[in-house]
Amino acid sequence: MDQKLKIGITCYPSLGGSGVVATELGKLLAEQGHQVHFIANSIPFRLGTFQKNIFYHEVEVNDYYVFRYPPYDLSLATKMAQVAKAQQLDLLHVHYAVPHAVCAFLAKQMVGDDLKVVTTLHGTDITVLAQDESLKDLIRLAINESDAVTAVSRDLIRETVDLLDIQRPIDLTYNFIDKRIYYPRDAASLRRDFAAPNEKILMHISNFRPVKRTQDVVEVFRQVQEQVPARLLFVGEGPDLPKIQWKINEMGLSDRVHFLGKQDDIAQVISMADVLMLPSEKESFGLVALEAMACGVPTIGSQAGGIPELVLHGKTGFLSPIGDTQSMAENAIRLLTDDRLAAEFREACLHRAHHDFCNDAIRHEYEEIYYRVLGREVPSLKPVCG
């Protein structure tokens, strides 16, 4: 009997760690022969070119004049149900409780209990939205009515249980990297465009929201460059960008800081760096730290959320209390001035990323969850990562 599944995936298709993980997972599942149907309002940006077993279904929002605001959630739920019926989906895997798990719950009511729902919590749906009393009951409903729930870190599971008084089990499924994409690249020529041979490169990649504490990145760099010839590269865009630029100008550092904007080939960009800066005050996992780790780049970060589960302090990076820029600067200087220590960290980063967070192992963990909720036996052996 054919054990391959028909899976619907819904995520935020624009930039963001949850969309990246959901899209990459879909691609990996399709490579295994599963039929994957992305249901979203636009094509996920990491989906790329045509691939066998991958299909995209666009959600079109009804703009009927009686609606003051276009009812995207209802349109998404309807589309989920339509695709599930037409394609005979086995399950919906939705990323984020609100609105996606709620929409999947509605779709299941329309289709029937044979359609299973797996919900993955990525962070903001709990760390931000669930703080809103008006949304708590809705998020709790979405979680409790799912056939399985996963979260990307132990810290996120703890916060979900504590905040929403969740009694049901939540599976820990860490984020992952595709080792065929994330590995140390030869970035020597690209690096020469930004730094002299004797200069080190610090890098920060994010959406520049206040939670990322990008001004801490600037302060750490200010302290570092007083002792180590260095450059700072910012990758991404977001609301705090003007504040960062103002602070850099005030400090007289504008000739040593470069803004690269949004970049698609993150592995190539990260490979230029000597250290990644991640001083966030909230971070459910810290996917960019894993991407850096897979390219041999250690992280200077904060002891926030799930970061300590990913970055091993003193082995693959250094972690400090949130806002302790002096400690972060001291740790960065230590790595940037000790070549032997930097080499040790680089090797530890590569081993941990490609062994503990490899794509094959995490993909298989999701498959086990899918088959479990469907009441079927897992047909393949767990892959070995190295």
From TrEMBL:
Q: Know the name of this protein?
A: N-acetyl-alpha-D-glucosaminyl L-malate synthase BshA
Describe the location of the Glycosyl transferase family domain by residue ranges: 196-348
Species of origin reads Paenibacillus tundrae
- InterPro entries per the UniProt record, alphabetical: Glyco_trans_1, Glyco_trans_4-like_N, Thiol_BshA
Identify the residues that the record assigns to the Glycosyltransferase subfamily 4-like N-terminal domain, covering every copy. Answer: 16-178
Report which residue ranges the record marks as coiled coil: none
- Pfam families, per database record: Glyco_transf_4, Glycos_transf_1
